[in-house]
Amino acid sequence: MSNLYDALASAIYVSRQTLAGAAIDTDDKRIRASGLYEDWTEGKYQVDDIRNANGQTWECFQAHDNATYPDIKPDNPAWFTFWRPLHGTSPETARPFVPVQGAHDMYRVGEYMIYTDGKTYQCKQDTNFSPEDYAQAWEVYDG
Question: pLDDT tens digits for 104-135?
């Protein structure tokens, strides 16, 4: 995620928002700025820290230190107790589907994601289920 193109596109986006007096204060805006966020590494994290990992942009919602809790890392079940994936509200900011762990990371009406079948879906009603598990909550985005 942190390649030069992503960083440049993110820098331009953030600059335009700043000039317009707008804050980077929503999941969608944070995803658009994701090229400027660091990739996750072991360390000490505070609430609201944002990092990229596994093709997704994540927000820390519970402070922790990997020196004390080494199991808190991407691809480990403990990760989801401390980090939530950001969800885009446009097809352009759709990120890979992440199974929902609780109310803090459920998909909301109007959010988009890319499912395991490679298709982009729009959430039609708040849900903690995938398109396979609860199809009526999702609609394939055809562009």
Answer: 999 999 999 999 999 999 999 999 999 999 99
User: What are the pLDDT digits (tens) for 45-63?
Assistant: 999 999 999 989 999 999 9
Q: Are 83 and 61 in contact (CB under 8 A)?
A: yes
**Residue tagged 């804050």 (tokens):** 23
CATH class of the region 89-143: mainly beta
Beta bridge partners of 96: 114
Residues of the chain with CATH 2.10.10.20: 1-86
Q: Which of 37, 140, 48 is nearest to 97 (CA)?
A: 140
Helices (H) and strands (E) in the chain, counts: 2, 9
C-alpha dist (Å) from residue 116 to 49, 95, 128, 131: 27, 11, 16, 10
CATH class of the 1-86 domain in this structure: mainly beta
pTM here is 0.89
Rounded CA-CA distance 137/41 in Å is: 34
Residue 85: phi, psi to the nearest 5? -75, 145
Residues facing residue 107 across a β-bridge: 127
